[in-house]
């Protein structure tokens, strides 16, 4: 019995190589195409690909995903750089292919997804909340998509609970030491040799603190999430933002 016909776009990058190996070993999945930056996307239609994992760079990910949707190929996207304008354009493209599913996942680590979920649950119980993310120095964007997604979920949970702004009396920050502000939540980015992907979510109230931390020491940590997404994205037509929506949380 044949499995899901899958492909990897960005197969020669570090994440791409891990994804190729993981999909080759996964039961119920047949890896039928592995594309590098110089390969034509037409190879996907020639191989009758059903699901493509997109692991390229922000400069090309939008056009790659548009191609997939236009050809009815489900997409599992790990490339960052998906701001609201890009997501809005993707929604319009998906309207022309309503049976096609696209997952935009800020993080495929199960630990990171759970950390974001736990943070969302904790957000309404603490006055203060900040996010710290640490990645390898070759990462192109800052703050990370995971940290941005985490901050937005915390902010949404606080708003739903009727909470006001996070307390902060800072009046002068000439050097930007307070970090980026995402929906009212401060986010700090560190780039350090020897790291892969790490996030620390800090909450505080009078006399109490809660820290939620997740560490990915090897890119193999992201592969179970990618394999799960390839198996289940066809069950979720339209745009899905975040792997948590494909998990039983």
Automatic annotation (TrEMBL):
Give the InterPro entries listed for this entry: DapB_C, DapB_N, DapB_N_CS, DHDPR_bac, NAD(P)-bd_dom_sf
Q: Which pathway or pathways does this protein act in?
A: Amino-acid biosynthesis; L-lysine biosynthesis via DAP pathway; (S)-tetrahydrodipicolinate from L-aspartate: step 4/4
Q: Where is the Dihydrodipicolinate reductase N-terminal domain?
A: 4-108
Residues of the active site: 135, 139
Q: Where does (S)-2,3,4,5-tetrahydrodipicolinate bind?
A: 136, 145-146
Record-annotated Dihydrodipicolinate reductase C-terminal domain positions: 111-247
| Name under which the protein is recorded | 4-hydroxy-tetrahydrodipicolinate reductase
Its taxonomic path starts at: Bacteria, Bacillati, Actinomycetota, Actinomycetes, Micrococcales
